[in-house]
Design goal:
Elements (H helix, E strand, L loop, with lengths): L2 H25 L17 E13 L4 E6 L4 E6 L11 E11 L2 E11 L2
Parallel strand pairs: 3-5
Antiparallel strand pairs: 1-2, 1-4, 2-3, 4-5
């Protein structure tokens, strides 16, 4: 095979690969869910928001009881949180896990909205 044909083949395969990666990246976005849908996303990373009903901070872990109009769940943060207070409106990105038969979200990122 000539070098020019090999270069064309490699370029074509690279372009096709980039197209597939682009399509996959769009479909792989983190879903934004309501709290009452959390059980459907066990083991997956989600984005959700609500009101911090209770905030408990220790040196190693923080817990937030997050609620919306119809549901509440526990948010666990292993990074220290100091800016979240009771009644703050927050958005949480994290993985849904089962701990002692209770669903919780292990936070990767917590943002205060108000």
């Amino acid at each position: 095979m000539k070098d020019s044909n090999l270069i064309k083949l490699c370029l074509t395969i690279s372009i096709i690969g980039l197209i597939f990666l682009s399509i996959y990246a769009e479909k792989a976005e983190t879903p934004r869910i309501k709290l009452n849908e959390v059980e459907n996303y066990l083991g997956k990373t989600v984005i959700t928001n609500g009101i911090a009903e209770r905030v408990s901070v220790t040196p190693t872990v923080s817990f937030i009881t997050l609620r919306d109009s119809s549901f509440r769940t526990t948010i666990v943060a292993f990074d220290p949180i100091s800016n979240i207070r009771r009644d703050d409106n927050i958005t949480v990105t994290g993985q849904v896990k089962l701990y002692k038969n209770e669903l919780e979200i292990v936070a990767e990122k917590i943002e205060k909205l108000n």
